[in-house]
Each structure stands twice: as C-alpha cells, then as structure tokens.
Amino acid sequence: MEMEASESCGAFMEKFTLQPICSASEELPLNGLTFAVKDIFDVEGHVTGFGNPEWANTHSAATSTAPTVVSLLNAGATCVGKTVMDEMAYSINGENFHYGTPINPVSSDRVPGGSSSGSAVAVGAKLVDFSLGTDTGGSVRVPASYCGIYGIRPSHGVVSTAGVIPMAQSFDTVGWFARDLRILKLVGIVLLQSDSHSVGPSPTNIYIAEDCFKLLDSKSNYQLIDTLVNSTRKLYGSDDMIKYLSLGDYIEGNVPSLKKFMTIGTCSNVECSYIPSSLRALSCAMRLLQMYEFKENHGEWVSNVKPSLGPGIAERVQDALKTTDENIDVCRAVKAELRAALTALLGDCGILAIPTVPGPPPKLRTDTTALEGFRAKAFSLLSIAGVSGFCQVSIPLGIQDNLPISVSLLANHGSDWLLLNVVEAIHNVLQE
Predict the structure, then answer these.
(1) Of 117, 139, 170, 383, which one is the catalytic site residue?
(2) Where is the Amidase domain (predicted)?
(3) Per-residue model confidence as pLDDT tens digits over 303-314
C-alpha cells in the first residue's frame, strides 16, 4: 500500500501495522488480506479519537484491542491503521471539520458518507481489502452506497461491540465494507461466528417496498425495481415469490406505539410530504432514543470539556443534551413492536428490498438546510433496520449519471447468512 495513495484520499487517521496473530503457514480465511478500522475501535497502545481532537486529548491510549479486531487478526488479516470518521459518530455525510473529508473515490466533488467515511473510502480507493465501521443510524450503509461498495449492518447484537466507543447502544452495530462480495462473506465467517455460512435455505419471498422506492426519482425507482425483479426471475425461474407491498401502511397497522410520534418531528421541506407518515414517525422514534442514549453516554464529557464541534454536529449534540426520558419507554415499545411485525411479515426466510438511500451522494459543503428533505427521506429508510435490529446489506449496482447507485436487502434478526447468500446469488446474476 503506497503512502501517497492513502494520503491523497484522506482516509487514514493514523497508520500502523498489526500483524496476524498466527503462523504464516496456517490456513486461515483472511490470510493475506489487509484491513483498516474506524477510529472508534480500541487498539492497544493507541488513543481512540472518536473523530474529535479534544476527545483524543482527554483520553488515554487503549490498554487492550477490541475483540472484533483481534478476531480478524487471529483469522490471518493484517490491520494497517485507523480511519477518519465523523465527530462522535453523529453524521451520515462524512465531512470532518477538524481532520478533513476523505475523498469519495467515485466522485470527488461528492461526500463519501459517514460516519464511517474513511473506512468506506479506504476500501473504495483500493487501499485495503476490507474495513470495519460502525452503524448506528446508517453509518455503514450510507457510505457503502455513496462509495459504490458493499456494506453490511449485521443483526443488532450479533457482532461484539466491546472495545468500541458507544454512540447509542440500542442501535450500535459493528459492520464492514468490501469491494468484493467474496471478501465480505469471508469476514462474515469470522465475525458472525456461524457454521451455517456454506449451506442455507433459499428465500421464500422477496418483498419490494414500493412506497420506499417512490422516495427516489422516477428513473432510479423503476430501474432498481426492474433489476431486482429480473435477477429474482433468473435465479428462481418464477415471479411467484416476488411480492409488492406498501411498507408504510403495513408498519402503521402493526406498530401501534408509533401513533405517539405521528405528529412529532415535522419537516417543512416539500420532499418530506412523500415520506409515508409511519416511516417518518419511525425515524423520529429512532432519533429520540439515539439522542437520549448519546446524552447518557457522553453528555457529561461534552458539558465539562465544551469541545469545538463542526457545523451540524454541534447542533445535534446540543439537541441531544436537552433530551429527557419523556417518551423513551414508547421508543423501546416501538422497537419491540416493529421487530415482531417485520418478523411476522418475513418469517425466517423472507427478504425485504428497499433503496439504501434516497439518491446519489450530495455535493460537498452543501448547506444543512438544503439537505433537510434528503436527510428526512434517508433516515426514514435507514430506520427500518435500525429500529427492528434486522440485518441489511447495501448492494452496489453500478453508475448512473456518473454517480453510484445501490439497493438494500434486509432479513430477519439472526438471518445474516441467508441474507449474504441471497446477495451473492443476485450478485452472480448481475455479473452475468
């Protein structure tokens, strides 16, 4: 890996080498592969910076390495450093006021996506074979889509978050990126700790959430649905397993606690009017619980240190510090009800298809106000897996108008290998 290449894309926060914890002669799944980790993971002897220089200055070097990183080293991979991230993991843009913005390898005038921006860019720019990120509100799925690579948010709680700075533990997951689906699955063999990765059931149904696809522009809407339908038809030889539904209507009818949030968190942007009311409410519940848990985790540090925070981050952190426990029990009820409702819909072998994000990556330094409608649509989509705890993979489908496009597939909590196997099957059809 060339130093000039890594510096030119701005992906790395700190470069070092952690060699595999094994004999070079051992046959291990990740032998010969390199990876990087988001600067939210503890690495022994290094300060975990959390995207903010004042956090780094007020915390000591880690005394142990996060178990997830150790597992990858034990599997034969070499860690080459830590990557830039959004401050305190509180953005999906990837623009860091203090350390700069990693350059999107697909389109340099566009944001790379956050908060795992550097990890996505390091993979997209071919500096490493795979990388680790975290996904609370979309921080793996968004940069994966923006950088045109694969990204997985596994089922909540399946991959250890020990040795990872918490953002909001009800949603925090350790995810990973890869350009190559084979490598994405090899990392899954190590991190998902499952013996069922080689053989598994076929999906029973693939549900296409038409209302979610309508959040895209009409051209992308039809192209993505056609791609999914054609791939499924080639794979399984029938249209019978393809089901169309209005996910917003289904959620509204099966998650009664959402009524509390139907009139909260209104958005004045005209784009917001296209969002199903239940998905807008779901996003509101997710963001409220996320703010509350962020305050519980980091409010004291923010209040004592009064750190300098970048635009957008500062406002979100201040909003979080103002939260109380009002409606938090309702948020947790929404989580339980949504998981039950989507489990009833998909069962153990159903797949749900939605857009990863509502459009191509925004331009760099776009005003926060101008992004209001886009962000509202994005979090409505991202909250589906976030609140339910279901697993989700963002699949790159190529380039449209010189910008990356993607689609996401979701599966039931714990059905990560079913999901990865379906993604692989669709990938193989697309390659043909």
Answers:
(1) 139
(2) 25-420
(3) 999 999 999 999
